[in-house]
Amino acid sequence: MSDTIEKIKCLIIGSGPAGYTAAIYAARANMNPVLYQGTQPGGQLTTTNEVENFPGYVDGVTGPEMMVQLQSQAQRFGTDVRDGWATKVDFSGDIHKVWINDSIELHCETVIISTGASAKYLGLPSEQHYLKMGGGVSACAVCDGFFYRNQEVVIVGAGDSACEEAHYLSKLCKKVTMLVRSEKFRASRIMEERVRKTENITILMNHDPVEVLGDEQVVEAVKALNKTTGAIVDIPSTGFFVAIGHKPNTDIFKEYITLDETGYIVNTAGSSRTNVPGVFVAGDAADQVYRQAITAAGTGCMAALDAERYLASKEHSVLRVEKFTQEIMV
Predict the structure, then answer these.
(1) Are the C-beta atoms of residues 120 and 247 closer than 8 Å to each other?
(2) Average pLDDT in the chain
(3) CB of 102 within 8 A of CB of 87?
(4) Annotated catalytic residue: which of 80, 90, 102, 144?
(5) Residue 325 pLDDT greater than 80, yes or no
(6) What is the pLDDT of residue 173?
(7) What is the largest CA-CA distance in the chain?
(8) What is the DSSP annotation of 256-286?
(9) Is 144 an active-site residue?
(10) Candidate list 143, 163, 284, 287, residue with the active-site label
(11) Cα 126 to Cα 214: distance, rounded to the nearest angstrom
(12) Which residues contact 14 (CB under 8 A, 6 or more apart)?
């Protein structure tokens, strides 16, 4: 551990649209924010080739380019953006303690958690190849479905989110093949019935994707194993969507912050407040419903405003105590 303890007024843990937006608002409010970018600077959006649904970008923008612009905007107003990630926290007292890279100890008046959530992937080498190439593998139908209009795509998953994304894709694509890796859906009955009744969705039960096929640049088909018969089938497809869930990056907070059964941070309805005073959450670490860049940015704004009000209320309380002390001493 470091012998030097740094005192920080507003610490933002994580980058991406939520963290950078929180930094912009906190910096403009003279909160002197310090932002640690985390293990993936810029967040999930840095793996997205084209972003066309964020307001203000008429011709679209790449995810990495947008993150560079947001970071530059935050730094323009004075945000101290640093490399590194939080490895331990102690929120048991009035001073919120955070350790960076197991070596730097920070004492913070306020903390904004914007660590996001990571999409789960199958781990196939071919899946990871085309994900990195930006050539046909995605974990967000709402984000990327537009690029596959009138094409044939494959989606793997069995829960409500998978059904919802398959139904969304069916409105854009010529054909959607849904691979359910077990003998039954995990989704609610109404969601299962919705995809079963959609004419251009073909459901293959008990099928495992085993390889994503293509020309090394873009996806052309998905190879799947019928676990009942052992047969292998190649499904023509220009897009492969993985909808097997997300994992919120919240493990280091679980001793102090209230999480739901899947690990998402529970915030006070209509605000970014957590169960710990002075600790706030923004973005996908608390959002398992929308998971969009624009909603993450919105909650980043909320978190900074909530943190500012929290500090103002503390300062007001201190002034009241000081005034009371002066009065009784007169």
Answers:
(1) yes
(2) 92
(3) yes
(4) 144
(5) no
(6) 97
(7) 91
(8) TS-B-TTSPBP--TTS-B-SSTTEEE-GGGS
(9) yes
(10) 143
(11) 9
(12) 36, 37, 38, 43, 113, 114, 115, 116, 249, 283, 285
CB 237 within 8 A of CB 154: yes
Which residue type occupies 2? S
To the query of whether residue 143 is one of the catalytic residues in this protein, the response is yes
Over range 157-176, report the average pLDDT.
94
Q: What is the DSSP letter of 320?
A: H
Q: Which tokens go with 64?
A: 């990495």
- Sequence length of the chain is 330
Backbone angles phi, psi at 45, to 5 degrees: -65, -20
The closest alpha carbon to 227, from 186, 175, 181, 274, belongs to 181
Q: Quickly tell me which residue has 């169960």 as its tokens.
A: 275
d(CA 265, CA 303): 13
Angstrom distance (rounded) from CA 8 to CA 16: 21
Residue of 3, 102, 108, 140 marked active site: 140
**Residue type (1 letter), 86:** A
Is there a contact between 139 and 119 (Cβ–Cβ < 8 Å)?
yes
pLDDT, residue 1, reads 47
140 counts as catalytic = yes
Lowest mean pLDDT among 23-27, 44-48, 210-214, 250-254: 44-48
- Specify whether the CB–CB gap between 166 and 195 falls below 8 A: yes
Per-residue pLDDT of 98-107, as tens digits, reads 999 999 999 9
Token pair listed for 258: 């209230």
Between 313 and 51, the more confident residue is 313
Indicate the pairing of strand 104-113 with strand 33-36.
unpaired
* Residue carrying structure tokens 């679209």: 60
Tokens of 56: 């203000």
* Residue 235, pLDDT above cutoff 90: yes
For the stretch 113-166, pLDDT in tens is: 999 998 899 999 999 999 988 879 999 898 899 999 999 999 999 998 899 999
pLDDT the model gives residue 52 = 83
